[in-house]
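Batch job 17 of 40 flagged for manual review because the log was empty.
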Amino acid sequence: MPGLEALLHALVSPIRAFWDPGSRHFAPALLVALVLAAIVWWRSDRRESFVRTVFPARVWLHPSALLDYRLIFARSLVRLLLTGPLVVSSLLVAARVIITLRGSFGPGPLRGTDPAIVTAVFTLVAFVAEDFTRFAIHYASHRFAPLWAIHRVHHTAEVMTPFTVHRVHPLESVLNRAGGALAVGLVAGLLGWLFDGRISGWTILGVDALGLLWNLAGGVLRHSEIPLGYPRWLEHLFISPSQHQIHHGDRPSQHHKNFGSTFAVWDWAAGTLATSEAREGIRYGLPPHLRDHGDGVLSTLWAPIVNAVIALAPRRWRAQTAPSARPEPRERR
């Protein structure tokens, strides 16, 4: 069992995230988000003050938002006590790939390539590969009943704040981390063999440079009610905050769209892309009959597991009334 020091560290780590460049809540990213929110407000009709527009009490003090705040600390404890060991190391994956390729094909054919080129190639390819993996896992989470039972937690948020990003079941976090580590490890291993040398990527403040820049470019507003959209053509390349807000809409025609994290081309190719126009009149959350947990932390963590098990059981054993036993049918147009 973890000691008292480890438990205290887990409880404090969400607060330390404001100083962590790798966190969604890195203080400079929050400041940039505030500036972008001010621009959106200034270009709107400004019926309400800036403070009431960005920090409305009906949103920040909503029971759904209060649950998000509690989940921040609960997930930190669960990761320490239960899911922490369930981590896939990208370094181990890369090492295994390099050993396998060298054993089969000998040294890589591009040995001696300029290290600056190697770094640039790895940074870009790893970023794209990880983003595609996140899209694929997210897409699968809306298509396969056991995964939907777990992922559904994220869609029960009835209001959106930057802290809604933490409304993710710990098992889904494990899956996402494993997918990302596997993607980066495979890319690092392949390029490590191909260039026959040490692989590293661009970093800023010790973290992935492209990930940090994307967060600083307004990624914080993905989980917010600030309607920051891009020009229509650009929303076919990159997912805007407005597009991700559409994904949190309460209708299947909304929350089965825009699975991408950074790049919109995956959704464009899959036919699941929706641009900012679809955000009009949006309401967040899921219909009451699809919500499978209460407003308590324990219910939020436990009910999805029960429903995932039900979804895995033989059909004749499934409880017909279990709301998350299968994804709901799509809306007819």
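Reviewer: the log was empty due to a logging misconfiguration, but the result itself is present. The radius of gyration is 21 Å. Unflagging and moving on to job 18.
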